[in-house]
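Q: Entry one of two.
A:
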Amino acid sequence: MPLSRKSIFCRPFWVAACLLLGSCAASEQDGGSEAVAVVAQQPQSVPQQLRVEVVGSSRAEISAELHPEAAGLVRSVRFSAGDFVRKGQPLVELDSRRERLSVEAAEVRLREASQLLSRYRRIEGTGAISQSQIEAGETALASARVELEQAKTALSDRTVTAPFSGHIGLTQIDVGDRIAPDTIIAQLDRRQTLFVDFPAPETAFGRLGPGSAVTVSPFSEPDRMIEAKVIATDSTISDEQRTYVVRTAIDNSDDTLRPGMSFRVLFVDSGRMLPSVPEEAIVWGGDGSYLWVVREGAAKRLPVTIAARREGSALVEAELAGDDLVIVEGVQKVREGQSVRLVKPRQEEVQDIEVDSADPADAEPGPEA
C-alpha cells in the first residue's frame, strides 16, 4: 500500500526513537556495559571501643550521723572535730543524776527480793510456807533483775559513744545545750576505704559490672589517676535517665581524700572487632543503610548496621568477605551487578610558593597576560 507523504516524513523519527529506547532498555537490563570508575578500599578491623566518662561522688565505707538516745542537758563534749575515735569511746555525756538514782533503787529492790527468796528456801521443807509463796518470791526476784537492767540501760543512754572507729566531724553541740533524739551531734566516717558511685549508661550494663576496673581522678587533683575496682551495681535502671549506679572502691589509707568529693570516672573497653569504613561509603535508602562492595569485578549492594562512629569512620556490622573492597568514591554511579574499574584516589597537588622577603613594590612587574 502506498505511503502518504505524512507517514514517509515521520518514519525516520520513529525509527530513531525505537533504536534509542531499545539501547536504553538493553543497558538497564545488563547493568550497563561500560565499566564505571570507582575508588575502593579494603575495610580495616578495629575494636568496638566503649568509652564511659562521667562524674562520680565519694562516700565513706561506713558513715553515720550520731544522735542521742534520750533528751537531756549536755554536761560534757569529749571530742574535737577531726579526731579519730575508737569504737565505744564516750563522745557526749548528758545529765544522768535521776538515772543513777534509779539504778541504786533497782539494786536495793533486787537485794530485798533475793534475801526474801533465800528465807523462803530455808524454811521450804518445814511446812511453814506454801509453794505459791516460794513461786511469788522467785517472780519478785526476776522482776527486780529486769528493773535493774532497765535502769542501767537508761543510764547508759545518757552517754553517746562511738558505734565504730573513725573520724568525727564538726559539731554544733556545746556544754549546757539541751538536746533531743532528733538532734545531730556529729558525722562519723570510716574513710580508710572510699566508695565512688557514678551513673553508667544502660548500653554499658553487660560490660561494666563487678570486677571491672575504672580510672578515677579527683577534681581537686586532676593529674592524679587512681585505679578503682567495681564492687557492686544497683539492682535497677533509672526510667528517666536510662542509667544505673555503679559503686567502686578506692584505697584511702593515706587519708588524703574525703567523703563527698567529686571524681572524674573513665572506663574504656575494647570489645569485639568490627570492620571500619569511611562514612562517605555508606548509602542510605528506603530500607536502611548499605554499602557497595566489589566482588568479581562487579558492584554488589550489601546491607549494613552502623554500630559506632569514630572520627570520620563508621564501625559496621555486615557480611563482608575477607577480599571484599568497599567503594568509597563513585557510590552514586554504580548499580547492582555493574562492572567497575578501580582507580586510585585523586590527590591534590600542593605547590610550595616562595615569598620574597623584599618589598613587593621593588619587584619587577611581570609580563601582561
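Q: Entry two of two.
A:
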Amino acid sequence: MKTATLAGLFLCVLILVGLLSDLRPASAHYEDFNVQRETADDVVAATGEMREATLKKFMLHAKEHIKSLDFVTASRFRREMRREGPWKSGSIYLIVMDPKDGQVFIHGNDREAEERRLFSLPSDTEGIDIASLKRISAAAVAADGREICLKYDDSGTQKWSCAVTYFSSLDFGKRLLLVAGYHHDKLPARTFAQLPGSDYKPSVTASEVHDRETLKKFVEEAIEAYKVFSTRHCVDPSDPTTCDLSKTSLYRPVMRSAEGPWKSDQNAVYLFMMYDEGERVIFNGNNKSLEGASLLVTDANGVHLGPTIIKEAKEPGEDGFFLYLWDDPRTKEDDIYDPGGAPGISPKLGYVKALDLPKSGRVIIFGSGIYPEVEKVEKGCAVAAGTVSASESAVFNLLLIVSAVFLAVLRRNRLRSKRT
C-alpha cells in the first residue's frame, strides 16, 4: 500500500476516534411518572363493584399527575400514557379532550385520534359510540369538577367509563376533560382533501426546496401557516382566558402528508418544531415517534443538536443555518443506533427560526433541512455545486469521509459478532 494512502487512512481513523470520544449518553432527566397507587392492570383485574371504584381511583390519580405538568414534562407523560404499563392495559387507558367539541389532546390508544374532533365524527362511525361519549362528557361538565362514572356500550358489552373536568395550566386555564375506561376502535383514515389545512398554499413547497434560499423561505412559510392555523376566537382579545383552546394539533396530519406542500419524499424535506425549554420535539413531519422526545442528542461529529438549534434560532447575529449528521429517510445505509446520539450519519444542512408566543411566554422553534446531492469523483466525494457555500462544501467532504469510515467500522463489528 502506498505511503500516501496509508497516511490518508490513518488520518481518517484519528478523526473518527476523536469524534467518537465526544459522544455523550442520553439525558436521564425524567420525572417518575410510573409510581402508581392504582394502575391500569389493577382496573383490569378488578371485578363487580370494585371495577368502578378502582377505575375512579385510577383516573383521579392520573388527574393529579396531569394537573402538575408543565410544557417540558407534558410531552413525556403523553408518551408514557401510550405505552403498555401503569397507565395503559388493553382497553383501559386515558383520554384528555376538549369537552366542547371532543378535540383529543392525549389518547392512550390511538395517536391518530389526537388530531381529531371526536364529536364531529358521523354518529354511525363504526367502532366508536359517539352518543355515549357525548353523554359522558356532558355529565362530567355538569358535575363541575366532581368525578362521574357511567356505563356505555362497547361492541355489545356494557362497560364502565369515568370522567372528570379540570382546569389546565398549559392552556390559559381552560377546562379539559379526562376520561378513563372508554374504549373505541382505531378511527378510520381520511383522504388528504378531508384534512384541515389541505387548501393552504405556501409560496415555496417542500418539493421545491433545494438550496439555502428556498430552505429558509420554506421554514418562514411554515411559521406563517402556523399563525393562521393557531388563530383562536376570543371573546375579549386582551384576555387569553376567554379564547378557544389551541387547534394547531388539528393541522399536523396535513403537514405530515407527502401529498401536501409540507413534506416531500423525493428530496426528503419535512418540517419539525420544538420548544426551546427542555429541547422537546413537538412535531416531526417524517417520524411521529420523535414527538415528545428530547433533542439532547449528539451527532457522530460531536454536534450537540438541541443547544445548537436553540442558539441558531434565537441569538442575534446568527443566520439560522447549521451543519449536522442525521438519517436520510431515503436510505437505510446511514442508520445507526446510539442512545443519546443522532440516528444517522448523512450530512445535512439545517435552517431554524424561533417564533415567540407572547401570551403564553413560550418560544417555538421551526426548522427543516436538506441533504445535499453528492457526486462521486475519482479521488473521493464532493458536494454538488450550488447546494452550499465553498466552506460548507469542504466541511461536507470531511463529513462524508468520516461517515464512510464510521459505517465501515460498524459493518465490520457486526460481521465479527455474527462469526462469534
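A: Comment on entry two: Residues 1-31, 374-420 have pLDDT under 50 and may be disordered. The chain has nine helices and twelve strands.
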